[in-house]
Amino acid sequence: MATSLSLAPKPAAVAVAAAAIPRLVPPPSIDMSAPSPPPPLVSVSRSMVAKHKAVVVMGATGTGKTRLAVDLALQFGGEVINADKLQLHRGLDVATNKATADERAGVPHHLIGVAHPDEEFTAADFRRAASRAAAAVAARGALPIIAGGSNSYIEELVDGDRRAFRDRYDCCFLWVDVQLPVLHGFVGRRVDDMCGRGMVAEIEAAFDPDRTDYSRGVWRAIGVPELDAYLRSCAAAGGEEERARLLANAIEDIKANTRWLSCRQRAKIVRLDRLWRIRRVDATEAFRRRGGAANEAWERHVAAPSIDTVRSFLHGEFTTAAETTAAPVPPPPLLPMFTLAAAGAGV
């Protein structure tokens, strides 16, 4: 992420309406099918070295990775290991979209809020921490489920250190995908929802007028650099009309940068798909709908097929060498770079 911000072109200012949108939280009535007898969570490779099994849930921002990870954990006795580089840090829980207690549904989550807000937590740091977490989860007889949108960190975990993780784990890669026009519409509504849940106030409470570097730690989160001009205007007792204009512009920039980030993340997954045999799950229909219909579509199009895939994986019916069942997905179209602020946010 670049230190200085270049917010051009700026979208037109709009009124800030914190429209409440339905959260995609599985209702208690969701039928995940009766759990089958627990399969062995280890496999034997061709070299006859026993491997544990792990699931990796990937996807662009806002596609429901955490929700699917929780669905799988509840079904198979798993624990979630966070792979979002910003959620590794303490603070800014709304801006970084950390899962709430309700969304976690009692499933243990690891590597959330473990680093100081200013700490530089590198991909290599993540590889070491996630490897330790996965080993501890597997030692308890549970299924490690790595979930997050920081694909460079996931790549470092899987292929870094001479592929040591692959030597210890047979991995099932799942990609929660949403058609970009549908996802981008949802992203705009989610930003409004985050504002309604206190994101602006949260960032304002952490604002330091002496801070000009937004390239480290939790301060890389989309929303922090975009609100800088607005918060400086408030600190300088700027006029009410000017503050309203700056806030509206900042929120539009947050939406634009989040959409841009989703395109970058998706393009990275398309590249990794050529290396890892990732199994794509299309969640578009769930994002087109609202309320109970959205939950029903999630169960039918995302949760159920993913559970079937992981069940087959755990029973040894396919391995990471198996061909992906999804048709090749073309990379998304390149979008104009609205700002450099999102460059390190989560790819």
Automatic annotation (TrEMBL):
Entry-linked Pfam families: IPPT (PF01715)
Broad EC category: transferase
Coiled-coil regions listed: none
Record has Membrane as a keyword: no
EC number(s) per entry: 2.5.1.112
Any one biological process term the GO annotation gives: tRNA modification
Signal peptide: none
Entry keywords, A to Z: ATP-binding, Cytokinin biosynthesis, Nucleotide-binding, Transferase, Transit peptide
GO terms assigned for molecular function: AMP dimethylallyltransferase activity; ATP binding; ATP/ADP dimethylallyltransferase activity; tRNA dimethylallyltransferase activity
Catalytic activity: dimethylallyl diphosphate + ATP = N(6)-(dimethylallyl)adenosine 5'-triphosphate + diphosphate; dimethylallyl diphosphate + ADP = N(6)-(dimethylallyl)adenosine 5'-diphosphate + diphosphate
Any one Gene Ontology cellular component term annotated for this protein: mitochondrion
Source taxon at top rank: Eukaryota
InterPro entries tied to this protein: Dimethylallyltransferase, P-loop_NTPase
Similarity field: Belongs to the IPP transferase family.
Role played: Involved in cytokinin biosynthesis. Catalyzes the transfer of an isopentenyl group from dimethylallyl diphosphate (DMAPP) to ATP and ADP.
Protein name: adenylate dimethylallyltransferase (ADP/ATP-dependent)
Native source species: Oryza rufipogon (Brownbeard rice)
